[in-house]
Design a protein that fits this description.
alpha+beta, Arc Repressor Mutant, subunit A, Alpha-Beta Plaits, 6 helices, 17% strand
């Protein structure tokens, strides 16, 4: 991409056929990686300050950020501390599935208390992070929501005692 973030005749337009891989490879050039890393450190950082760092105009940074957001490569959100918001019980739930794992993953993802679902290999087919107000709500979610999903064969719940590290600043490598 050029400094103005407009495609040239030799550069892809960013319009792809639904496959984000090709688009991601094109859009993750050096300046965009630097923009992402700056926003991972401080999502409220002014575009003008980022522009100075990466050698682009403020308008170019603004356009690049919007394209990165539109492509689903990044989000700019407020990360909160669940404890300070009254969510005193967090747990990771390991789930063994019979049948199509994707269907169960989709059903888990629809639950408001579930904020993270990953398909994995190993002892469990899925891991789901659950954030609740208290133990009573966790019991309800586990018993009435998670375990009642067709295909859930077995669960194991790992209660969080203390969160030692949570970061979103792993860079773009």
């Amino acid at each position: 991409m050029s400094d103005l973030d407009e495609p040239t005749d030799s550069e892809p337009s960013g319009d792809d056929d639904g496959e984000t891989g090709a688009f991601s490879a094109t859009i993750l050039d050096g300046p965009n990686r630097a923009i992402i890393e700056a926003l991972q450190q401080d999502g409220r950082r002014p575009y003008g300050a980022i522009a100075t760092e990466v050698g682009l105009s403020e308008a170019a940074v603004r356009r690049r950020v919007q394209r990165l957001r539109d492509a689903g490569i990044m989000q700019i959100v407020a990360v909160t501390d669940p404890l300070q918001l009254g969510f005193t019980r967090q747990a990771m739930v390991g789930i063994e599935v019979e049948g199509d794992v994707r269907i169960v993953a989709d059903k888990l993802s629809a639950l408001p208390e579930v904020d993270y679902v990953v398909m994995c290999a190993g002892s469990f087919d899925l891991l789901a992070e659950v954030v609740c107000e208290d133990d009573e709500r966790l019991l309800h979610v586990l018993n009435d929501s998670v375990r009642s999903i067709d295909g859930v064969r077995r669960t194991e719940t790992f209660l969080y005692l203390k969160l030692n590290k949570q970061t979103y600043s792993w860079g773009t490598r």
